[in-house]
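thought: user wants a sequence for this fold. calling inverse folding tool.
action: design(structure=
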């Protein structure tokens, strides 16, 4: 977990990212990070039952609905929820066989992360995907 090779693999191989807990408000971290991910060419799939759309994308109430709508084409689950919600998200990611899981800064749940790894999911925990991407050489596109 959190190995630089895994982080780089996620940044390189991921195309579609389900952002669990994404907000449709500009001042929220999930919105800003997701907007930047879009600028880098990733497809963002908002997962939040309280919103209808964000960043021009249809939002889904849960990971199951997003997975179904995209015919299973989700590469990464990026979690912007409090740590106590991580086990539920991890169980869904395992069941749906999503290959990568990213628990954002402050989202720490060792047990849930261990379940994911035992199921073959590559995990990054308590790191910001935007900061890691910038460290790997991302630059803001005009």
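)
observation: tool returned 142 residues.
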């Amino acid at each position: 977990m959190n190995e630089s090779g895994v982080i780089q693999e996620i940044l390189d191989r991921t195309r579609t990212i389900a952002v669990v807990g994404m907000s449709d408000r500009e001042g929220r971290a999930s919105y800003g990070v997701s907007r930047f991910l879009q600028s880098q060419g990733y497809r963002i799939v908002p997962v939040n039952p309280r919103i209808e759309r964000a960043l021009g994308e249809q939002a889904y109430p849960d990971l199951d609905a997003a997975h179904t709508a995209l015919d299973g084409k989700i590469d990464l689950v990026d979690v912007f929820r409090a740590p106590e919600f991580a086990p539920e998200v991890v169980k869904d990611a395992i069941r749906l066989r999503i290959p990568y899981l990213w628990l954002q800064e402050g989202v720490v749940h060792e047990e849930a992360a261990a379940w994911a790894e035992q199921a073959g999911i590559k995990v990054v925990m308590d790191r910001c995907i935007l900061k890691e991407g910038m460290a790997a050489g991302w630059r803001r596109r005009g």
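thought: summarizing for user.
answer: Here is the designed sequence. The chain has one domain: 4-135.
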